[in-house]
Amino acid sequence: MVKRKKEKMVIGSTDVIDLPELDLENIPCKIDTGAYTSSLHCAEVKFIEKGDDTLISFKLYDPKFGIHNKKTYRFKDFKEKRVRSSNGEVDFRYTISTEVILFGQKIKTVFTLSYREKMKYPILLGKRLLKNRFIVDVSKDNLNLKQKEK
After folding, report:
1. Please, what is the Cα angle at 72 between 89 and 13, to 5 degrees?
2. Cβ-based burial of 33 (10 A; exposed 0-12, middle 13-18, buried ≥19)
3. How many CB atoms are located within 10 Å of the residue 11 CB?
4. What are phi and psi of 115, to 5 degrees?
5. Long-range contacts of range 75-84, CB-CB < 8 Å, 24 or more positions apart?
6. What is the DSSP letter of 42?
7. For residue 12, how far is the Cα from the chain centroid?
8. 100: buried, middle or exposed (CB in 10 Å: 19+, 13-18, 0-12)?
């Protein structure tokens, strides 16, 4: 039996994404082929000791980005990762794994938690998510959003 390659979808340079585990829909994102890991804007990152476990806690509320819920999110499974920023500085960030929905596909992916308030988009989608799934056409935008609106 010959294994058939899954056809890659075209994604533009910007779009919207759903994060069902975080109860968020149509959050603006920028496609960033220069970033390996995707990044999620958050604030008030804290650690909570619960018995023998340590949880990471954060908020995503930011009306500038269309995120209006004031919910505090908690994840038991998180890691610390060394990240080199676009200006070459090395930083340590925490990562979580969560599900996203793009073009009707549910995809489990990793996000670094980052304070992105000065950035134009609250989410960057990096190569780790894009690889073997998408082809980026920078002349296009909001292809996922347009498909959802049909």
Report:
1. 50
2. middle
3. 25
4. -85, 105
5. 81/37, 81/112, 83/37, 83/112
6. -
7. 16
8. buried
* For the chain, domain boundaries: 9-149
Q: Can you give the pLDDT at residue 1?
A: 60
* pLDDT band, very low/low/confident/very high, at 60 (cuts 50, 70, 90): confident
Instruction: Please name the helix (run of DSSP H) or strand (run of DSSP E) that holds residue 38, with its range, or none.
Output: strand 38-41
Q: Nearest Cα to 122, choosing from 67, 71, 74?
A: 67
**What's the confidence (pLDDT) of residue 117?**
74
The Cα–Cα gap between 18 and 94 comes to: 21
101-118 average pLDDT score: 91
Model pTM score: 0.86
User: Which tokens is 38 given?
Assistant: 């995707």
Residue 31 and residue 121: Cα distance in Å, rounded?
10
User: What kind of fold does domain 9-149 have according to CATH?
Assistant: Cathepsin D, subunit A; domain 1 (2.40.70)
Rounded Cα distance, 8 and 66, in Å: 29
Residue 141, H or E segment: none
Cα dihedral across residues 21, 25, 29, 34: positive or negative? positive
User: Which pLDDT does position 109 carry in this prediction?
Assistant: 96
Question: Rounded distance, CA 67 to CA 24, Å?
Answer: 8
